[in-house]
Design brief:
The chain contains 21 helices and 18 strands. By secondary structure, the chain is an alpha/beta fold. The protein has two domains: 348 residues, TIM Barrel (Alpha-Beta Barrel), CATH 3.20.20.105; 116 residues, no CATH class. Strand 15 and strand 16 form a beta hairpin. The longest helix is centred in the middle third of the chain and has 29 residues. The chain is elongated, with a radius of gyration of 26 Å.
């Protein structure tokens, strides 16, 4: 793998990075969104993509290679001239067509050579996109074929064109992890997580999360990760939180052809809108009625423009959240817009220990906004660090004030639990938490008490709490004395 990717900021598994694309002579900031261009069906001219914020696009070299007119133009003009785009261009190999139709007429050597010859900046070999829920036998056989083709791709002389190493394995986390480890050990450059579009089409965001996180476990931290087909802005924050650096969107154009209007919360049909709930130029200059009365081509183009505006607007929002250290708050806000994205968020939190490995120790204030916040990486880290601390004697852990009869007294803050008073001004103990804490927050705090008590078996502890529920108190070790101080308030 060439050293083409550098991480410049991190929040959990999400990161801001710089992807060097040597053949294009550009460095792309990630996370980035690549509009998908079907050269036979262009809705918005690629020359306009930079207006929206696009630094890269992706197109299908198999379609171009198999269309005589496009093939000749690409050979004569090169992809950049043919599409009118000066940024970086990634090309797919036809694997999508393979998944749709069962076979394609090309090989890895042929398609990589064609991609190189027409000026692609990032090429893709012919991998086998095993569908979700395929049998393990099928997934293993097709993964073996994909791995053979990645090794074959290493032997093709493509100069300074970067080459993708797709990660397959269906819905088997161990196979995805194995596939990622194999791909990372090749000389290839980028690592798309493939065959997830069927999951996203079925709103199986929890399976998407499990799939991506399994792949991430097999990849090095310097590996740029592309989530194929993640085109709806409602899941950009989740995709970034999973550690994806490149996304691609055909949705901006496909949805526009069907009079569908993208928002960060979902999709609306044009005929259901009385007002445009957006501040982009399309929505401020037109009303839904005006757009609906336009001819098909004009209506489709305007809707596609809006869809691009809202997509790149959300991408910028995600990047700012990573820089500010509050991406998880954005992910949670987006997750609660739809039950299936909430499934994806909760699957992400199932792996908080994995996220914690790359999560900065200090950032902006932690906001507790729901029971899911109790499972965030910051809480996991705090509980682990409690095991290193050694209070001695008779120790008070309290949500109230101290008491001179104890040798030490520590503060208690749900969901984190106990902490030395000297840490009260450090992240994440500066958290903004609700006065009406939910059951999950108290239970997480009780787990913190248990972690501290277990690490210090010779220390006497008293927990002074404000009306914790029985479900939380049941998690406190029996040897810890508990006192309800809520009456004192």
């Amino acid at each position: 793998m060439r050293e083409v990717f550098e991480v410049t900021a991190q929040d959990g598994a999400a990161r801001i990075g710089e992807l060097e694309v040597p053949r294009a002579g550009v460095t792309v900031e990630t996370p980035t969104l690549m509009p998908v261009v079907n050269p036979n069906l262009i809705t918005v001219e690629p020359s306009r993509f930079p207006e929206f914020g696009a630094e890269m696009l992706i197109t299908n070299s198999y379609i171009i290679n198999n269309d005589p007119d496009l093939h000749e133009r690409a050979r004569e003009e090169g992809l950049h001239e043919m599409l009118g785009f000066d940024g970086a261009i990634m090309t797919d190999s036809g694997s999508f067509q393979l998944a749709e139709y069962g076979e394609i007429e090309t090989t890895t050597e042929e398609i990589l050579q064609f991609q190189h010859d027409v000026g692609s900046d990032i090429g893709t070999p012919v991998d086998i996109p095993t569908p979700p829920d395929a049998s393990r036998e099928q997934a293993e056989e097709e993964l073996a074929t994909t791995q053979e083709r990645l090794e074959l791709a290493e032997t093709v002389d493509v100069g300074d064109m970067l080459v993708n190493a797709p990660v397959q394995g269906a819905t088997y986390p161990d196979l995805r992890e194995e596939a990622a480890r194999h791909a990372y050990n090749t000389d290839l450059d980028l690592f798309p997580v493939g065959a997830v579009v069927p999951m996203m089409n079925q709103y199986r965001y929890d399976d998407v999360a499990e799939t991506v996180l399994a792949a991430k476990r097999g990849l090095g931290r310097d590996a740029p990760v592309h989530l194929f087909g993640a085109g709806h802005p409602m899941m950009f924050a989740l995709a970034a939180a999973l550690g994806c650096d490149l996304l691609d969107s055909a949705a901006y154009a496909i949805y526009a052809r069907d009079d569908r209007y993208l928002t960060v919360h979902g999709t609306e049909h044009l005929d259901s809108l009385h007002y445009f709930p957006c501040e982009c130029p399309v929505c401020t200059d037109h009303t839904p009625d005006e757009v609906e009365r336009m001819g098909d081509a004009a209506r489709e183009e305007l809707l596609a423009e809006h869809n691009l505006h809202v997509s790149f607007g959300e991408l910028r929002r995600v990047k700012q959240a990573i820089k500010s250290g509050n991406l998880m708050e954005l992910v949670e806000a987006r997750a609660h817009a739809h039950p299936r994205t909430l499934d994806g968020f909760r699957a992400l939190l199932d792996h908080s220990e994995q996220l914690e490995q790359t999560d900065p120790a200090s950032k902006d204030a932690f906001f507790y906004t729901s029971a899911d916040s109790a499972r965030r990486p910051e809480v996991v880290r705090h509980h682990r660090r409690l095991e290193r601390l050694s209070p001695e004697g008779d120790v008070l852990l309290t949500e109230g004030s101290g008491n001179d009869r104890f040798d030490e007294w520590w503060n208690v803050l749900p969901p984190f639990g106990p902490y030395p008073r000297s840490l009260s001004t450090t992240y994440p103990l500066t958290a903004e938490t609700p006065d009406r804490m939910d059951r999950a927050g108290y239970e997480a705090a009780a787990d913190g008490v248990a972690a501290l008590a277990e690490a210090n078996p010779d220390t006497e502890f008293t927990l002074a709490h404000r009306g914790w529920p029985d479900s939380a108190l049941d998690r406190v070790p029996a040897r810890v004395e508990t006192v309800d101080i809520s009456a004192e308030d």
